[in-house]
Design a protein that fits this description.
Number of strands: 3
Strand content: under 5%
Structural class: mainly alpha
CATH superfamily: Rhodopsin 7-helix transmembrane proteins
CATH architecture: Up-down Bundle
Strand order of the largest sheet: 2-1-3
Mean pLDDT: 82
Distance between the termini: 53 Å
Radius of gyration: 21 Å
Helix content: over 70%
Low-confidence stretches: 1-7
Number of domains: 1
Order of helices and strands: EHHEHHHEHHHHH
Largest sheet: 3 strands, mixed
Shape: globular
Oligomer: single chain
Amino acid sequence: MDFNNQFNATWFSIEGLSNLPELRYPVLTIFLCIYLIILFGNLTIFAVVCWNPRLHTPMYMFLMNLSIIDIGYTSNLLPNLLCMFIINNNAISFWGCMSQVYFFVAFACTEILLLAAMAYDRYVAICQPLHYIIVMNVRKSAGLTVTAWSVGFIDASGHLRAISKLSFCASHLIDHFFCDIIPLLKISCSDTSGVEMLNYIEGTILVGTAFLLTLVSYIFIISSIVRIQSTSGRQKAFSTCSSHLTCVCLFYGTLICVYVRPTSSYSPKQDKFISLLYAILVPLLNPLIYSLKNQEIKSSIVKLTSKIKI
């Protein structure tokens, strides 16, 4: 790609989370611990699914891919944030910033589509249990996974091309803790209406379609669960999708608060806090939610741990 923006912006400065020097090392310690927990939790889920043949089903293969996304998601943001605290230098190169934008959008889009695929999987499992093996076979689940990854990374390339063509001669200070789309648009001295329209249209189509599919799936799921006569049957059916529903609510709730609105309403302090929720809290909670609410995952972790000790 031929990008012309390199002549007026070769670097940016990221504002970060706090300008108070006394908070530098406490915040560094907290985020380092969070990052290690995210890596450990998601790698554990990944290892357990790979190790246990009983978990080689569409539901757990989707969960394994979700763990990969969460690792990539946070590894795109947190190491750079940690380096800012360690060396006390908030500068980032133009291409380093564009790389953050690309992978952030790619992983976010992939996760949105993967959560929709997981919702469809739960719909088939609960509403059409007799046809589950036929409908959600290995070929279809693999196709949904590959589609989610492909669309996510292709969609991100469109955002990257549009943003990298903007001029940033007015300011190089990004009022955020990473290179996000909206803060970059705020400091551009180019006309950003075309980029905003592209973000709005692509976001509406992608997020809207995935959200609608997820919503419809859960409407059918809940209606089917309600019709189950036995209390134990209802609890068992709901337990199979409660973990996924919790993760969907967390991810969509925080994402919509930041991006489904005009750029003019951007509030740095508020948006930094909300961004922390979907960029750090969601990947942190995903493995905990799935491991605590899923008996298969819990028992597999115990077996794998005991085997490692032996």
